[in-house]
Amino acid sequence: MRPDDRFDVTVALDYYAPYVSGLTETARMIAEGLAARGLRIAVACSRHDRSLPPYEVIAGVHVFRAPVLARIRKGVLSPGLPALVARLAARSAVLHIHLPMPEAVAVAALTRRVPLVATHHIDAFLPAGPVNDIGMRLADASAGAAIRRAALVVVNSDDQARGSRLWPLLRRRPTLAVPAPCADRGGGRPALRDGSGTHIGFLGRIADEKGIEYLIRAFRTIDDPAARLLVGGDYEGVAGGSNIGLLRAEAAGDPRVRFLGLLQGDRIRDFYASIDVFALPSIAESFGIVQVEAMMAGIPSVTTDLPGGRFPVQATGFGRVVPPRDPAALRRAVLELAALPAEARELGRKKANELFGLESCVDAYETALRAVIAGRTPAGATGQG
C-alpha cells in the first residue's frame, strides 16, 4: 500500500477469487459491483493458493492476501490476516466482514474505530463428532463477536436468520435481509445434454454438506436408461476436502451419472441449458445461489427443508421443498418437476428474475453501507440495536 491509499470499503474474508463457493462468489460479485459504481474497494483475505500474488487488482477490486501458515479442516491458519484487515480498515470508511470467519473475533477487536457491517452467510458446518462440535462452537463464538460489534448485520433472508444458531444474538442487532447476488445464466447451449431422457443437475462444491449422495441414491432408482444426472462442481480444491470418493462409490459405475468438475464462464450457461430440473439436496444451506440461477434460466429447483435454503423456492413457487436426507422424496420431486410444461417454466423464470438479481443486491448493499458510513441504520433493518 502507498501511504496515501484510501478506500471506501474494506472487505474481510478467508477465501476470495479465484476460489469458488457461495460465500466467496457473493463477496466477489458485491465487491466488483460496488467498484463498477466508482467506490474504492479493498479485499483482505488469505493467500490460500501459494501461486496467487500477495496483491493484485481484479475487476477494479484491490485484493490483498495474507500468508497461510497451516490448514485446519475447512479453514486456513493465517496469523497475519487480522492485522492486514486492521491496516486496510484504518484507511477505509467502513469494514465489511463475511461470516463465518475464524479470525472474526480478532478482526472485531482490532478495528473498533471503524464502522462494521457483517454479512452472516451461514452457521459453520462440520460433520458430527466431539472435535468438530468444539470447532463449531468456537466458530459461533467468533462470529458472535463480530455480530455484537456490527452496526448492521446482513442475512440472506429472515428465514435464514430465524433458523440460525445465532438467532438469539441476531434478533437483538440491526439486521437487514438482502438475498445473495444471482447472475443471469440464461442463453446457454444444451452442450452437456445426452439424448432425450430426463436430465437432472447439481452444481456446487462437492462437499459433505451438499448431500449429493442422497441425490445419487434417488437418481439410481430411476429406471430410464436415457436419464442423466449431471454433477458439476469443484472436487479438487475444496477447503476441508471433497467427498468425491464417496460419491463415486454411490454411483457404482452407473454411466448415467456424470461428474463434470469445475464449470466456469459459458460452461455454466450450457449446464443450465442442458438440464430439465435442478436439485440442491443439501444438509446445510442458507440460500443456494445456484438454485436461483437455475430458476432465473427457467429450470425449477428441488431443495431441502432448511432455514434459508428453502426460501428461494418458497418465494417463487418454482420448485419443491423436500426433507433432507430423503432419496425417495427427492426422486418424486425431480420427476414431477421434470414434466413441468413450458408455460409454468416461463412464469417461474419471470418470478425469479423479479425477486433476485445482481443489480438489486448491489443496490441494497450500496445503500446500506452508505447509511452505516453516515452513522444511520438503513431503512428496513429489524432488531433492537
UniProtKB/TrEMBL annotation:
Keywords: Glycosyltransferase, Transferase. Residues 22-179 form the Glycosyltransferase subfamily 4-like N-terminal domain. InterPro entries: Glyco_trans_4-like_N, Glycosyltransferase_grp1. One of its GO terms (molecular function) is glycosyltransferase activity. Signal peptide: none annotated. Its EC number is 2.4.-.-. It comes from the Bacteria. This is Glycosyltransferase family 4 protein. It comes from Polymorphospora lycopeni.
